[in-house]
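Inverse folding, one chain.
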């Protein structure tokens, strides 16, 4: 087995991993990801006990307990470029011996649970609702750098999605799915939908300010896409990257989206902080209920 180069896996002077500034024992088997560093406190304030608080750059981490359930919450910042850092470094913490720089013999799978904000693109999805991404198309480039396989059915769906865009629009989209066991465990009673992960907030989401755009009808393309009743439900900036890398690395992932805006109806939440707090409590409750049932 080949030793990993110290320039491929960079460690800090204290042995912690480069960007996240964490040691292997700092990470629980269930990791909640949030985009905003301020949201880490919004989650961990419901922990009964916090044992670890660490941070570097936009990556803030708290690990603690609710009852007997150990949880980590970590901020990723915005976008799948940061997801590439977070997912790979979390995996290295649990599946690479940082002393020998060799992969461990029996890879460990962790649960990665995203709690994020999003905008719906279909008029029937109400603002202030919760939506789970059963799958996600990615318009970013991250999975172009990783080997990933699709079923024939998903391959056909991706082909039809690609065909919905003008031929002159050069891009390489991908498709990735939530973990089926986590969907069954957490999302049986929650609306599910196909998410579109994009590499920006303005033109990549059809917002028009001063810069000239290449796809003037982007929102129309997104809203009209429909394959056997399967539509794009919402837009955000991390889910497809989380799902794609989780599959590549052997982890289980699920993404919860607090719908704070609806682009079809041009409405925005009147109290986004309260809505987000309500969903954080709901999701933490589900995680702990499942942990108790498993015990």
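Residues assigned per position:
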């Amino acid at each position: 087995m080949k030793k990993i180069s110290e320039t491929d896996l960079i460690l800090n002077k204290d042995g912690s991993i480069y960007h996240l500034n964490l040691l292997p024992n700092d990470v629980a088997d269930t990791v909640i990801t949030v985009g905003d560093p301020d949201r880490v406190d919004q989650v961990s304030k419901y922990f009964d006990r916090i044992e670890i608080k660490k941070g570097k750059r936009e990556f803030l981490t708290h690990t603690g307990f609710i009852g007997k359930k150990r949880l980590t919450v970590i901020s990723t910042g915005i976008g799948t470029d940061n997801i590439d850092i977070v997912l790979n470094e979390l995996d290295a913490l649990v599946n690479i011996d940082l002393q020998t720089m060799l992969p461990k013999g029996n890879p460990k799978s962790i649960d990665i649970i995203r709690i994020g904000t999003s905008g719906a693109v279909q008029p029937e999805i109400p603002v202030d609702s919760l939506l789970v991404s059963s799958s996600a198309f990615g318009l970013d480039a991250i999975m172009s750098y990783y080997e990933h396989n699709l079923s024939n059915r998903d391959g056909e769906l991706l082909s039809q999605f690609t065909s919905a865009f003008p031929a002159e629009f050069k891009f390489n989209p991908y498709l990735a799915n939530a973990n089926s066991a986590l969907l069954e465990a957490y999302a049986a009673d929650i609306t599910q939908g196909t998410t579109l992960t994009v590499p920006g907030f303005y033109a990549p989401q059809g917002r028009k300010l001063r810069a000239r755009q290449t796809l003037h009808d982007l929102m129309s393309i997104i809203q009209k896409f429909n394959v056997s009743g399967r539509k794009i439900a919402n837009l955000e900036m991390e889910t497809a990257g989380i799902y794609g890398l989780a599959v590549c690395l052997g982890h289980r992932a699920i993404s919860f989206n607090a719908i704070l805006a609806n682009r079809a109806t041009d409405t925005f939440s009147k109290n986004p902080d309260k809505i987000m707090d309500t969903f954080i409590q709901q999701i933490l409750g589900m995680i702990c209920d499942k942990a108790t049932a498993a015990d």
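The first strand starts at residue 30 and ends at 34. Residues 272-294 form the longest helix (23 residues).
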